[in-house]
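Budget justification note: compute hours in this period were largely spent on complex prediction jobs such as the one shown. Inputs:
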Amino acid sequence: MEAPPVTVMPVTGGTINMMEYLLQGSVLDQSLDSLLHRLRGLCDNIEPESFADHELVYLLKGRQGNPFILRARRSLAHPTAPWHLRYLGQPEVGDKSRHALVRNCVDVAASHSLPDFLNEMGFRMDHEFVAKGHIFRKGALKVVVSKLSRALVPGNTDNTEPLSLSYLVELSVLAPAGQDTVSEDMRSFAEQLKPLVHLEKIDPKRLM
Amino acid sequence: MQQREEKQLEASVESLISRVAHLKNSLQSFIYKLENEYDRMAWPSVLDNFALLSGQLNTINKLLRNEKTPSYRNQVIIPLLLSPDRDEELAKLTEQRVHVFSHEIVPDHLRTKPDPEVEEQEKQLSAEAARIGQEVAQKQIQTLNKLCSSLLEKLNNPRDDRDAETSAVRQNKQWFNPIDTTALVAAVGFGKGLSKCRPPASVAPGHPGQTMMTGGPTLQQVTIGPSGHQAGIGSSVAQQQPGQPGKMPSSIKTNIKSASMHPYNR
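Corresponding output:
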């Protein structure tokens, strides 16, 4: 068998233990322009970036316990750009004093052979989707407004169908563990987006 | 009597000079900031600077309008001594702007008409104004008037617009749909509703609902193992490639298993 590509995945440990603080919400298609307009006013004064990404979610199922999930993303707009591999830990809801969902987060850039490599390791693709939208920044805060679509034919990103009549809105910050003060900033930012979007900490376990 | 007037004049000039010096200092520091710190200057501090300048200009205006200030218009300045030589004292007083007090520059500096450049610009403008015909000018004036009046109207009635806006908001208060939020979050979180991306061909006949159910158990219960080693018995539906009935495919294969096997079950 060929030697696997040299893809370093500092999944656990590592020197930097970054956490992702997250708030989620959505906005109806017809209110999108109002939201983008407001974000352009609130966020850093740089041209908002647009993106079109294809995300593949891979599972590694052990003999027992939870499967290990990795998310591979590639840009449809820039096919030559590196792939993006992301590990997300179990989200912690925490108590009322913390205003955002917190989860472990490891981001790695990867080469284009990433899907093959994951397959060789025993990972299998679970599902995929296409996300198209806009990114805004305000300091460390990142706001992603995106339309999610499912692929009607697996692997074919040209033939997609929107998942709903809304755009997903995510407000996130990457910070070292224990810096719960960032959730304060996030909450005050989220306040300014009302009533267009209600950004909340949504426990995914509740939705299952 | 004359002496008192002179004293008053002197005092007022003195205070005017000091006010102008203040204004000059704040202008200088503002310009310095704009040129050197424009990348980290916050809007409020720019506004503060403007407020300071406008305050200082106001004080100067007040000073000039003050009853005690003699009318400078009535004062006449006569150049008593012209010299083509460099005057260090004058250069120092004018911050190196004027070095000589000669017949060449004095008329410009002591003139009561606008600066020569301004005068030149004014000439150009009046020449241009004379060039366009009476009718065109009239038309332009009308357009400008129309624009101004509509702008004024808008500025004077901001309330109407605002009320209209809020009523629009009230009418159309549905900006987002909580159901969509839940669906989208579930989709990015664990692929709920994305199961349709599986090829319909791989659905075992007789169980079409199993993969097509939205948010149904299919995707969350799909476990993917190498070469069907985990093929469930009894409760599981082993999927087979349509072309190879009954034969274990050698390639990787998808198994739909019972809910109890999967961590994502309800």
